[in-house]
Specification:
heterotrimer, A alpha+beta, B alpha+beta, C alpha+beta, A: alpha+beta, Ubiquitin-like (UB roll), DNA polymerase, domain 1, five-stranded mixed sheet, globular, B: alpha+beta, Uridine Diphospho-n-acetylenolpyruvylglucosamine Reductase, domain 2, Uridine Diphospho-n-acetylenolpyruvylglucosamine Reductase, domain 3, Enolase-like, domain 1, 3 domains, 12 helices, 34% helix
Amino acid sequence: MPERTVRLSVNGQVGEASVEPRLTLADYIRERCGLTGTHLGCEHGACGACTVLLDGAAVRSCLIFAVQADGMAVTTVEGIASADGQLSAVQSALRECHGLQCGFCTPGFVMSITALLRENPNPTDQDIREGLSGNFCRCTGYQGIVNAVHRAAEMMRGAATG
Amino acid sequence: MKPASFEYHRPDSVDDAARMLAEFGDEAKVLGGGQSLVPMLALRLAFFDHLIDVSRLAELKGIERDNGWVRIGAGTTDATVGADEQVAAEVPLLTRVTPFIGHFQIRSRGTLGGSIAHADPAAEYPAVALALDAQMEAVSPSGRRSIAAADFFTGLWETTLAADEVLADVRFPVWAGRCGFGVQEFARRHGDFAIAGAVVAVELDAEDRVSRCGIGLMGLGSTPRRGAAAEAAVVGQRAAEVTPEEIGALAMTGLDDIPADLQGSAGYRTRVGAAMVARAWAAATTEASNA
Amino acid sequence: MELVNEFRVPVPVDAAWEVLTDVERIAPCLPGAALLSADGDEFSGVVKVKVGPITVQYQGKAVFQEKDKSARRAVIKANGKETRGQGGAAAVVIAQLEEDGESTACVLTTDLTISGKAAQFGRGVLADVAGKLIGQFADRLEADVLSAGAAPARSQPEAEASRSSPSARTESVDLLGALAVPVAKRVLPVAAGLIGGLVIGFVVGRRS
């Protein structure tokens, strides 16, 4: 099937490539851009390991074809820390609160939590658990992750007022 | 797994999309948000030589009042529908059912039209469309037509959309007056397809008698279903005189193809379904009597 | 799993038997099917079934294991493999014809084993799909039989049958089409009793 040219901005860098239409955004990010922080867990939209931000909205990159994202801006976990390498509030909080073990689900959680806290800077436990129901973790039992979200929200509130 | 190869088309307009569907026939499929279609392609349960991407067509997006109806473009995302204030005020069932759709990442891309055209029997928007007697508007190379919800869903993942038709808009009637709405869905994990679910719309008159009632059922057939027996029984009755359990049980009569699978037997689904209707009814009538 | 389906054709039972055991004639009537070869009682073909966006295509063989003309009973054993997948389907179909005045009722009892992607569907969906396929088959068969001219005479089994050459095209079944007047009725497996009843009725009917 004929290839198409796509032009995407990934973490602020614009790139152009020729792709098969069936190449998913996840595979584009991982294979064409070399950004393997975005993980493939189930490849059918259930596990959340592939979550990225597309024009600011959290989406399943395994359910989008790269050709559909032509002209759009993608943010992956590699684009979350600041340019000098300082971890974001969400990343620091996950580390501080033991919100990860093997780390496979973590990029998906980082992206989802980042998006959630933008929408709702003061989430309750229930808000958090419901909001993150689309991200699966096999290691932690989730409590550390929930704690991390509260901690990140607190840090972000502190930074805002501080 | 990766999808099989296909050719990708991005039409400039709905008419263009319909023309492509007509041209490619059986081997083409409309791609909207892709949240239902792409998993099927990825698991290789479905194969199409041509995908027609309508996800960027501005003419398919938008929410507007249209006389006594709210018209929602088929390409409007679930997230947009769920957050819209006009929808919350005028078609609250849509707003209240949206959080049950998958997860927020799914809702960023999934569309109202996509959900209705895909016609999964456990999906939320089809049940709301059926309960409220929505109108689906479809565009084909031969023009535009309106399809009533009652005539739209014909079988598992099957609708009366013709092979060359693109679902363009869905119009939902605005229920005015003393109305109340309830949504109840049961699934093992948040975001899973409903094992059984119910959406209820009820309108009461000044004496608290039911003047009309719409009950949409999810997961209880090969299509979304109406709790028709319950609706008929309840019209004219005083809301307080109908027990939720009665309504729940009545809503389950006449359902002849309740699924039985790994998630539950038909008997189990029936019990859960009755409870979902009962609770949604209770919520709806409480809201209506306070209106 | 067991599926039971029934359909009728508006011709007397002897003529119905001849038509229904003439594979080359009935193959074009089976929706989404294409006959690849026919060799006596053995035939091979392809069937493509669509449920909404999902398509499953099987390629395989079927053979008449039994053909009892006096009892109007045939047993067909069929199996096929998915052309795009690892699964397959195997079926043993018992077809029993019964005289009903100038018409014939045909009851199909199918013992079906499915593996692969179609196996994910519950029993209800498979029974639904089978029912619709049989319904469309019966509609087309009726149209075919009627278009073959006046009611075929009982004593001329072979003569009038119009032979269409094996179709090489594979159209997919759009099960939506079965919305048209359903000739077939979907009968649930409780119909073990029904079959018994039909057989008894048949026997009793024949005696009188």
